[in-house]
Amino acid sequence: MGKLSDIGTIKEILTKYGFSFLKSLGQNFLINPSVCPRMAEMSGAKEGVGVLEVGPGIGVLTYELAKRAEKVVSVELDKRLLPVLDETLAEFDNVKIINGDVLKTDLHRLIEDEFGGMEVVVCANLPYYITSPVIMKLLEEKLPVSSITVMVQKEAAERICAQLGTRQSGAVTAAINYYASAEMLFKVSAGSFMPAPKVDSAVIRLNVYSKPTVSVDNEEIFFKVIKAAFAQRRKTLLNTLSNSMSYSKAQITEALRSSSVDPTARAEQLKLEDFARISNELASID
Ligand code: SAM
Fold first, then answer.
1. pTM of the model
2. For 129, which DSSP code?
3. Could you give the count of Cα atoms lying within 13 Å of 117 in the half-sphere of its Cβ?
4. Phi and psi at residue 129, in whole multiples of 5°?
5. What is the whole-number distance in angstroms between the Cα of residue 25 and the centre of ligand 1?
6. How far apart are CA 204 and CA 138, in angstroms?
7. Most exposed residue of 63, 164, 262, 286, measured as fewest CB within 10 angstroms of its CB?
8. In a structure prediction context, what are the per-residue pLDDT tens digits for the chain, which is 286 residues long?
9. For the chain, which domains are there?
10. Which residues contact 166 (CB under 8 A, 6 or more apart)?
11. Residue 182 alpha carbon to ligand 1 centre in Å
């Protein structure tokens, strides 16, 4: 087998296994040889560090991670890729492929069983149809991972990495900012994938906080406030919160006043502390 990142080698492997891409599984494989080493390096994969990968495909990124990390565990849903990965990753004894759906996998258990007390990072070229659910699962389950380096659609990357309090921010910006700081690492053109998707991509890194930076009394209410506030982002907070939540207009008005938030402000003007104060006020209502 030639160098795995060579387009010739990749095509040869795909032909040998008669592999056809499944759009429904978000199968756009990386064929740009400079992207995977860069991503692996920036993910913090190194000696003593374990890497959890989602969706190895034919293993181009897995290969670069395995070269650097202590151990790589990769969850792949498509059974057809298992024999391919056996061949492409044959030279490593520190890689384990688990066949399954990452959204249905008990990741706490996996991390405990596979990585012991090792520092763990996540690195993945995510299937785009489940970008947000995967990222939110990794964060909401409060997994013991120090960072999450992922390739996502460029628009999603911009939204996630936006500053709260600006027009570019959205519910996902606020939700992710509760758990981690987000940084844009580099952009990747659509032509770096096979088949080429319609949109460009970007690699982002979420540096996970050991504990959230704002104090929230009830996380369920906090996330409901964020979702409701951005659901109708052009409306005032007073209107959008009273339309989408089960509190009266008077209760919302009082919660906003006690939180020192202008009821005529829009969600995109708020900082994380504002969402926390509003939700703490609402949580204190019987
Ligand atoms: N890492 C490879 C690369 O960079 O070339 C492939 C990335 S491709 C964008 C996404 C991969 O995720 C595919 O291999 C796909 O089969 C896999 N996948 C899709 N849905 C999944 C799920 N729910 N759980 C685990 N893997 C999934």
1. 0.95
2. G
3. 0
4. -70, -15
5. 7
6. 15
7. 286
8. 678 888 899 999 999 999 999 999 999 999 999 999 999 999 999 999 999 999 999 999 999 999 999 999 999 999 999 999 999 999 999 999 999 999 999 999 999 999 999 999 999 999 999 999 999 999 999 999 999 999 999 999 999 999 999 999 999 999 999 999 999 999 999 999 999 999 999 999 999 999 998 999 999 999 999 999 999 989 999 999 999 999 999 999 999 999 999 999 999 999 999 999 999 999 999 6
9. 7-208 (3.40.50.150), 219-283 (1.10.8.100)
10. 268
11. 22
With the most atoms of ligand 1 within 8 angstroms of its CB, the residue from 76, 107, 151 to mutate is 76
Distance 74 CA to ligand 1 centre (A): 10
232/266 Cα distance (integer angstroms):
9
Q: Taking CB atoms and a 6 Å cutoff, what residues make up the pocket around ligand 1?
A: 25-30, 54-57, 60-61, 75-78, 101-103, 125, 127, 130
d(CA 184, CA 105): 27
Residue 183 phi, psi (nearest 5): -135, 140
The CA 10 to ligand 1 mean position distance, Å, reads: 16
Which of 25, 72, 89, 105 to mutate for ligand 1's pocket (most ligand atoms within 8 Å of CB)?
25
Distance (Å, whole) CA 77 – CA 85: 13
* Beta-ladder partners of 180: 208
Cα separation, 178 vs 227, whole angstroms = 13
Ligand 1 atom, smallest distance to 31 CA: 5
Q: How far is the CA of 214 from the centre of ligand 1 (A)?
A: 34
Mutate to test the pocket of ligand 1, among 14, 78, 123 (most ligand atoms within 8 A of CB): 78
Distance 12 CA to ligand 1 centre (A): 20
